[in-house]
Amino acid sequence: NIPMVLHDLYEDVYYEVQFLSWSMSASGGGFSYTRSAGTTGWINVTGFDNGTFFEKADYADYTDSTNWDIVADSVAITRADSEGLFNPYTDTGFSHWTDAMPAGTEWAWGATEEDDQDYTSWYNAVYQSGWGPAYALESSMEGYTDGHTMSMHLIEEDLYYDVEFHDWTCCAGGGGFSYTRYQVSPDGISIENTLSANSSDTLTIILGGSSLSPGEYSAEMIIGTSDTDTPELVVDIDLTVIGTPVLVLSTDSLDYDSLFIGLESLQFVELLNSGNDLLTITSVSSNNSEFQVSLEDDSLDAMESTLLTVTYVPVTDGAISGQITIESNDLTNPTLTVQLTAVGQVPPEIELSVDSLEVFVSPEDSTTRYFTISNTGPNNLVYNISMDDIGSQTVTFTKEDWADWTLPENQDRVSDNLWITRGDYNALFNAIYEYPEDHPHGPEGTQWAVGPLEDIEMLWFDSFV
């Protein structure tokens, strides 16, 4: 299997991923892989290579090699009294239109270690910053904060340099500029230094980083030297990252307002592990039995969350309070609490003076009857009245295939102005005002909604189609 590289854009960390299995098509979505971090994500060496500083003064003679930064036998960098950089060995001067300019080099904006580099000419690379040279390369330019480092690649020699610009004279002002260049490997790690006789260097190795997952990491630092007896030294580097679980609650208080005794109300607290190791919730308890707790999961991986359900079951008439205590292996905050408040109320009690009404009237008459609704409880009774017409007429209408829609028996005559029917195809229509070939969508004089009549207040009405 060919490995892949995963770039975590949030943490700017790279991993090598080797897939072990993958379920094809709609077979369940299973997969597995191994993931290992690259050493550039957790090792940083400083104090290595002090760099080469170069400066060309304004109006200095660019044909004089003392005003060139000679990088290799065939590559030097300089600048005329204006415009951009060029290679005086092979270029007659700067050109906007040459792909390799300065000749023998290609450039990208940003340090070499950045993995998404797009190498091009020096001029085009400067504009990758979003600015021209006057802003991008002048370190004292007010308001510019994006850094001033570019990556230079010597094509034939296959050497990489980080070039940190310090000054840039703009606009035909003499062509002055200065920078410090550091030779680096393709992944951006500094690779060259020189020690004079009887001298030493102190290197600082920084191990770890906030984005590392818990576990063990190993690498080798290989030091190549010009010592003929010891051309290579290997330093083994081992790092153990001890994880830290961190418990975060979505809220530290819940208010249930008022609730009648006999009912119950649920609220939720999200528990998130914002750390980088397994979080274990060892205890969740309530100090008031009227607040009951239920936890979905007591083990959370990094950045995983679960819900704590807190149910208020009132027994007491009046205001009460309580506290939920959550204990975990979070070393910084091993105990967190959620404060609870609620008001229980004895419910009202309804009584009706009658439980049924039976009335006989002629079609043209009406009559009036009275009944009483009483509340015998201690708290307010809220009531509403609706009618369920259980004795109303139900009509079942059928129009058979190819039946003549113009005949009365093939029309549901709902009212004097609404006769619902259908032609041999298309949708329903109102036979009083419409024809099947009109392809109506109403039918005329109607609106429709999906759902039962009892939900009429919540339904959305539109045309039949």
Secondary-structure blueprint:
Layout: E1 4-8, E2 13-22, E3 31-37, E4 43-46, E5 52-56, E6 69-72, E7 75-79, E8 85-86, E9 105-109, H1 122-127, H2 133-136, E10 149-154, E11 159-168, E12 177-184, E13 204-207, E14 215-224, E15 232-241, E16 247-249, E17 253-260, E18 265-273, E19 279-286, E20 291-295, E21 299-300, E22 305-312, E23 318-328, E24 335-345, E25 350-352, E26 373-375, E27 412-415, E28 418-422, E29 428-430
Parallel strand pairs: 17-24
Antiparallel strand pairs: 1-2, 2-3, 4-13, 5-12, 6-7, 7-8, 9-10, 10-11, 11-12, 14-15, 16-18, 18-22, 19-21, 19-23, 20-22, 23-24, 25-26, 27-28, 28-29
Task: Briefly say what this structure is.
InterPro entries: HYDIN_VesB_CFA65-like_Ig, Ig-like_fold. With 465 residues, the protein is mainly beta.
List its traits.
465 residues, mainly beta, 5-stranded mixed sheet
Structural class: mainly beta
End-to-end Cα distance, whole Å, is: 54 Å
What ranges have pLDDT less than 50 throughout 5 or more consecutive residues?
none
Radius of gyration: 40 Å
Classify the beta-strand content into a percent band: 35-45%
The gross shape turns out to be elongated
Number of helices: 2
What's the total number of strands? 29
Oligomeric state of the chains present here: single chain
Kindly report the spatial arrangement of strands forming the biggest sheet: 5-12-11-10-9
What do the pLDDT scores average to? 86
